[in-house]
Amino acid sequence: MPPLRTALLQSSGRPGAVDHNLALLDEAAGRAASAGARLLVSSELFLTGYAVGDALPDLAEAADGPSALAVSELCARHGIAVLYGYPERSGDLVFNATRLVGPDGAALADYRKTHLFGPFEQRWFTAGDRPVVQAELDGLRVGMLICYDVEFPENVRAHALAGTGLLLVPTALMHPFPFVAESVVPVRAFENQMYIAYVNRAGPEGEFDFLGLSCLAGPDGTARIRAGRGEELLVGDVDPALLDASRAANPYLRDRRPALYGSLAPAHREPAAPVPADRPTS
User: Fold this and answer.
1) Exposed site from 5, 44, 75, 185, fewest CB < 10 Å?
2) Residues with a known catalytic role
3) Phi-psi bin for 203: left (phi > 0), alpha (psi -120 to 50), beta?
4) How many CB atoms lie within 10 A of CB 256?
5) Of 15, 7, 64, 3, which is closest to residue 208 (Cα–Cα)?
6) pLDDT tens digits, the chain, 282 residues: what are they?
7) pTM of the model
């Protein structure tokens, strides 16, 4: 199976301007396809912007709404798959969502963010409840998370156990958390033996300052490609041969002992008070 050439669009677009952002996505898809890419990944809430405040409910669309039709058309025209972020309206609820559209324009998968970060997201969005969403693209099993989701090791391990080879993570990583992009994401890729395409927004937006630093992290724990702090289009390869070799050399998934991990399933409990040093334990 040949490598899947993957493009990362590090951009915040123009907050509140969906038509403008669709035009940016169209232009980036054309450039990525010309570079041989079969997949283009954009940032979290790319179509609407992140810091749109009270306008967010009005910008939200159904999963098969007008923007979905526009993205489907540009994918088919350029012959490239696209993952885009947007606020999804479903009845009275709004989700922080992504859709993966194939190079023929057909919708492949939809995902709703399961872990909402901070008061802004918790005010406007409802959390999704499907932890593992996958699709097949050019023979590779592709999965989706959004931003904060990847910071929970359980989420990424669930994808690894379900066979995800490339995890797509549109994000809105902000100051002061550069270590997530620089350290956490490559470690997640290594400990779960997968590729992770982590695609951020860039620059100031409302009350937020987005850090850029998008990367394609490999199963060897390195950033195969890495963006700076500004707007950028990166292209790199997801190599199934490297993935297979790395999984053979690093048997984390084979050496697991699930029977020991039952304590990970219950909901969070406050840790017990420490035992005083002069108090016998038993």
Assistant:
1) 5
2) 44, 113, 147
3) left
4) 13
5) 15
6) 899 999 999 999 999 999 999 999 999 999 999 999 999 999 999 999 999 999 999 999 999 999 999 999 999 999 999 999 999 999 999 999 999 999 999 999 999 999 999 999 999 999 999 999 999 999 999 999 999 999 999 999 999 999 999 999 999 999 999 999 999 999 999 999 999 999 999 999 999 999 999 999 999 999 999 999 999 999 999 999 999 999 999 999 999 999 999 888 776 555 544 444 444 433
7) 0.94
